[in-house]
Amino acid sequence: MEEPSQLVMRLKGESGKNIWICGGADIVKQLVRADVIDQYFINVMPTILGGGIRLFDGLEKERKLKLIKTKSYNGITDLVYERRINAR
User: Fold this and answer.
1) 52: domain CATH number?
2) How many CB atoms lie within 10 A of CB 8?
3) 29-80 residue pLDDT tens
4) Which DSSP state fits 60?
5) Residue 32 in contact with residue 63, Cβ under 8 Å?
6) CB 73 within 8 A of CB 44
7) Residue 12, domain extent
8) How confident is the model at residue 86 (pLDDT cuts 50, 70, 90)?
9) 3-class state of residue 42 by DSSP
């Protein structure tokens, strides 16, 4: 079975449209480590949990992102970030 990061790299090499991945912390960590995510779509819900699985926990190095879009509705905020290439 193909690893998620290998699948994304293979699909990026093919012609076609965008690749949309909806997953939890484990999938996100694998793809961030492989540096194959170009855009991050993050939803902020107005709920204080006090605990849970951190989406970006355990990553070895910092990734620089650029906010490119926001949208708020019904108390929810959608954030869209792009990966910065050669960021300082």
Assistant:
1) 3.40.430.10
2) 19
3) 899 999 999 999 999 988 888 887 777 888 888 889 999 999 999 999 999 9
4) S
5) yes
6) no
7) 4-83
8) low
9) strand
